[in-house]
Write a structure and sequence with these properties.
The chain is an all-beta fold. 0% of the residues lie in helices and 49% in strands. Strands 2, 4, 5, 6, 9, 10 and 11 form a seven-stranded mixed β-sheet that branches.
Length: 123
């Protein structure tokens, strides 16, 4: 089993920054791609960003390009989503997800999900 533990959510001002962490554990967790999704009240969950298991390839939703950055440690046991220039529209519960295959923007690519962490951006 792959287990995910998220942290780093909180309150930020517009234009501020937060860094989300996703700690992965379990057998062969280093081979899993990591995706980030978010969901705000009244909206469907949407893709935000993803990183391959080797850490060489990253993918981003258009609205966060240039503001958010995915990374992961060499040992691939922790992944990060660094968020800059936050906007009130970024307010949502953010989820970390892990999948055995290639990274992508579809929820079906991911087998394991974290509990979510709240990000709130004030105007």
């Amino acid at each position: 089993q792959v287990q995910l533990e998220e942290s780093g959510g909180g309150l930020a001002q517009a234009g501020g920054s937060l860094r989300l962490s996703c700690a992965a554990s379990g057998r062969i967790s280093s081979t899993y791609a990591i995706g980030w999704f978010r969901q705000s009240p009244g909206k469907e969950r949407e893709f935000v960003a993803a990183i391959s298991w080797a850490g060489y390839n990253t993918y981003y939703k258009d609205s966060v390009k240039g503001r958010f950055t995915c990374s992961r440690e060499h040992g691939a046991d922790t992944a990060y989503l660094q968020m800059h220039s936050l906007k009130p529209e970024d307010t949502a519960v953010y989820y970390c997800a892990a999948g055995r295959g290639i990274p992508g923007n579809k929820e079906r690519l991911y087998d394991y999900w974290g509990q979510g962490t709240q990000v709130t951006v004030s105007s």
